């Protein structure tokens, strides 16, 4: 169990922000004032309203200014590294690392963008950021047909980079399909040492959905030393 995480996914739209918010709420409940960090965010109509970063800010307790959560924002619904070129908005790897070090040893959550090989700039993919930060990784995967393949590819890539996995969280972002019944057992058979959590049920109501994510991820956050 840990108190700092990098939340990544097998893809975009799989539930990373929901899982990140649940982890932040758990840390905040323990009185931690956790940091939230979503350095790259794309796909927003107004640059003043990055949806993921605002959700993370609220989940962490609202103490952090938006500019320390969200560094590089793009309007286009494109991978950040592509959007930066299209919108001619430069990013800075050095600034990103400096911002992260300012969090010190504080507990918190970094949310990536899309999956491991989403380009962040001309030289770095998400996995390069994970290598630079070296936090325990939480992988979020959409439960359903295709998940065994996507999750296997993701876990193999993380192992090749010697990145430690705290858990894989399976999420029903859609009502359950037949394949999702078989996902947990097949994944556990392939990766006996990895902790698989969920699946988080599909839930239309926002408050109930948040509680479902809280329940599934509750065991991931270590209690502070007394
Ligand atoms: N269990 C669930 N039940 C219903 N809807 C869900 C569930 N989990 C996620 N969703 C919805 O699916 C969408 C994608 O979730 P989320 O934003 O957490 O994904 P993400 O991986 O962070 O996406 P991105 O790659 O854009 O950052 C959201 O609209 C979210 O509310
Ligand atoms: Mg997100």
Task: Describe it.
It contains nine helices and eight strands. Helix 8 links the parallel strand 7 (about 165-170) and strand 8. The chain has about 230 residues and is of the alpha/beta class. It is globular, with a radius of gyration of 17 Å. The model has no long low-confidence stretch (mean pLDDT about 95). Helices cover about 40% and strands about 15% of the residues. It starts with a strand and ends in a 9-residue tail after the last helix. It has one domain (about 5-220): P-loop containing nucleotide triphosphate hydrolases (Rossmann fold), CATH 3.40.50.300. It binds adenosine-5'-triphosphate and magnesium ion. Adenosine-5'-triphosphate (ATP) binds near residues 9, 16 and 203.
Describe this structure in a few short sentences:
The protein has one domain (4-220): Rossmann fold, CATH 3.40.50. 38% of the residues lie in helices and 16% in strands. It contains nine helices and eight strands.
| Distinct ligands | adenosine-5'-triphosphate, magnesium ion
Kindly provide the name of the CATH class: Alpha Beta
Main sheet: strands, sense, barrel:
6 strands, parallel
Q: Which strands sit side by side, in order, in the main sheet?
A: 2-5-1-6-7-8
Report the structural category.
alpha/beta
Annotation field: number of helices = 9
Span of the ends, CA to CA: 16 Å
Radius of gyration: 17 Å
Q: Determine the CATH superfamily.
A: P-loop containing nucleotide triphosphate hydrolases
Can you tell me the residue ranges where pLDDT is under 50 for at least 5 consecutive residues?
none
Order of H and E elements: EHEEHHEHHEHEHEHEH
| CATH topology annotation | Rossmann fold
What spatial form do the alpha-carbon principal axes imply?
A: globular
How much of the polypeptide forms β-strand, as a percent range?
Answer: 15-25%
Average pLDDT value? 96
